[in-house]
Design goal:
This protein is an all-alpha fold. Helix content is about 70%, strand content about 0%. The protein has a single domain, classed as MetI-like (MetI-like fold, Orthogonal Bundle), CATH 1.10.3720.
Length: about 300
C-alpha cells in the first residue's frame, strides 16, 4: 500500500512575489496598457477623448509629414543598431577572447577598466564626449593634428555625414564592457579539457576559436544581439545629451526615442506637445521590439541552443 504525500501550497511565496508584482504593475504594465489604449483615441479641445481606432497609426504611416519623420527616425535607429553590431560585438568578442587567455596578465584589471564606462550616466558620457569633440578646444581634433591627420578633421557632431556615426560609436564604447563580460563568462565556461585536447591534436589558436570556442558561445552571441536590439530601439539618453531634443543636424541623429520625446512633450517653440501621437509612436516601437524578440525566441534561439 502506497501513500501519497500532499504538499501544502506554498502561500508564503506570495509574500516574496507581491512587492515585485506590485512595482512591475504600477510602473510598467499599467502605463504600457494605458499607452496602448490612448493610441486608439483622439484628443478633443473640449470634452473627453473620442475613440478613433487605428486612425492615429494610419496618420503616422501615410501622412506625408508624419511618415517622413517616422521613416527618418526609424532609418537612423536601424543605422544606430547596425553600427553597434558591426563595431561593438566583434570588438567585444575579441577583447573577451584576449582577456580569457592564459597569457594575459591583469585580466581582472582590464575587465574593470572596460566595464567602467557602462557604470557612468548618459549625461556624464554625453557631456565629456561633447567637450572632447569640440572643434575649438576638443582633444580629438588636437590629437589628430599632432599625428598628422588634420586633413580628416570635420565638425563631428555638426556634419550630417558623421554625426550619427559618432554618436553610435560613443554609445558602442560606453556599453562595450557589458558584451565583454558576457562573452568572457561564456568563454570561461568552456571546459579546459576540450581546449587542451584540441591543442594536443595540433589545432592552433585560430582554429580552436572558430571550431570550438565560437560555436559554443553562439547562444551568448544571440543574447547580446537581442539585448542590443532591445536597448537601442529604446535608446534616447545618449542622443539627447549629445545632440539635444532636435537631434541635429537637420534631424540627422533623430531616432525613435527622440522622435517620441519631441512629439509627446514638445520642443519648446518648435513643436507643440501631442501626447496622442506620442503614445502612437511608443506603441509602434513596442511592437517593433516585440516582433524582434518573438523572431529571436522562436526561430533563432532554438537553433542556437541546438548548435
Amino acid at each position: 500500500m502506497t501513500t501519497t504525500i500532499r504538499r501544502r501550497p506554498r502561500y508564503y511565496l506570495l509574500v516574496f512575489l507581491l512587492p515585485a508584482t506590485v512595482l512591475y504593475s504600477v510602473f510598467l504594465a499599467i502605463p504600457l496598457l494605458d499607452s496602448l489604449r490612448l493610441s486608439l483615441f483622439q484628443e478633443q479641445a473640449q470634452g473627453p477623448d473620442i475613440f478613433v481606432g487605428l486612425s492615429n497609426f494610419h496618420t503616422l504611416f501615410t501622412d506625408p509629414i508624419w511618415s517622413g519623420r517616422f521613416a527618418n527616425a526609424l532609418g537612423n535607429n536601424i543605422k544606430f543598431f547596425a553600427v553597434h553590431i558591426v563595431v561593438q560585438m566583434p570588438i567585444a568578442i575579441l577583447l573577451a577572447t584576449l582577456l580569457t587567455s592564459r597569457r594575459i596578465r591583469g585580466a581582472n584589471f582590464f575587465r574593470t577598466v572596460i566595464f567602467a564606462p557602462s557604470l557612468l550616466s548618459f549625461v556624464i558620457v554625453g557631456f565629456i564626449w561633447q567637450l572632447m569633440l569640440n572643434p575649438v578646444w576638443g582633444i580629438v581634433d588636437n590629437l589628430l593634428r599632432s599625428i598628422g591627420l588634420g586633413s580628416v578633421i570635420m565638425p563631428w557632431l555638426g556634419d550630417p555625414r558623421s554625426a550619427l556615426l559618432v554618436v553610435s560609436l560613443v554609445s558602442s564604447w560606453q556599453f562595450m564592457g557589458l558584451g565583454v563580460m558576457l562573452f568572457s563568462a561564456a568563454l570561461l565556461s568552456i571546459s579546459s579539457e576540450l581546449l587542451d585536447a584540441a591543442m594536443v591534436d595540433g589545432a592552433n589558436g585560430w582554429s580552436i576559436f572558430w571550431r570550438i570556442r565560437f560555436p559554443l558561445i553562439l547562444p551568448t552571441v544571440g543574447l547580446v544581439f537581442m539585448l542590443t536590439f532591445i536597448g537601442l530601439f529604446n535608446a534616447f539618453d545618449i542622443v539627447y545629451t549629445m545632440q539635444g531634443q532636435m537631434a541635429p543636424p537637420n534631424f540627422g541623429t533623430d531616432i525613435l526615442g527622440t522622435f517620441f520625446y519631441r512629439t509627446a512633450f514638445g520642443a519648446g517653440a518648435f513643436s507643440v506637445p501631442n501626447p496622442i501621437m506620442g503614445t502612437t509612436i511608443a506603441t509602434v516601437v513596442f511592437f517593433i521590439i516585440l516582433t524582434g524578440v518573438a523572431i529571436y525566441l522562436f526561430f533563432v534561439q532554438r537553433r542556437l541552443v541546438r548548435v
